[in-house]
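[09:14] KT: can someone run the structure on this one? pasting the chain below
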Amino acid sequence: MRRVSEFLLVLILALSMNWCSAAAAQSGALCDKKETPQFCLTGAEGGVSDVTAASTGKADGLGNPSLGGERRPLYRLRPEDVVEISFTVAPEFNQTLTVQPDGFVMLRDAGMVPATGLNLLEFASAVEKAYTGYLHSPEVAVKLKDFEKPFFVVGGEVGRPGRYELRSDITVAEAVQIAGGATPQAKHSQVVLFRRVNDDFVETRLLNLKRMLKHDGLKEDAHLQPGDFIFVPQNSISKIARFLSRPSMSMYMNSSQF
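[09:31] RB: done, structure tokens below
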């Protein structure tokens, strides 16, 4: 009887071990079948899923903006920009240079180097390359000292025609006011906005400032971009006024036409 009991106990232990092994194997299989597990626990340890974080955003048009990859494009040098070049181990070569109209700068003892169209990192690399062989392992830092500020131009029948800095987001109606406002001879209904798209193409847009201001339609106003030109034309009466005597002008004036 005692032997029978011992035999049953051994049999139960063996069955229990086989069941645990099968359960562990099934658990691992289920874990492997999951497509995107966050955690997969086997026994006392857990394996973390192979999920990598999104790469940090890049500048200058690299990366996908919808994924947070693209930031603002880096500034690229233009003629008349002023750059300050500093050398880490050779401060005697520090210099401040102006980009020439042809797009080059003249480096001290290193000659001409192209600058126009390069961002500051690319320009620093070009300077280091120019001094390689002349200086041992040159390390260069470039700082933008002065550059052409964004601007817009207002001409025609305004109080102070000229060029103005574009320091914030402004509209055509606001720009006309900045330029002293329209004169009494201005034709508010046909203000022209010129915008250069490229070297061969200029986009034009006709704006009726009179209607926008009279009917509170400023939502139709256009927002300026750097380099925009606004022209406020002269009305018809002003064009022929110098040919008419003052008493006879009232015969031709009709305010509804302007």
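[09:33] KT: thanks! Residues 25-57, 64-70, 247-258 have pLDDT under 50 and may be disordered.
[09:34] RB: yep, looked fine to me
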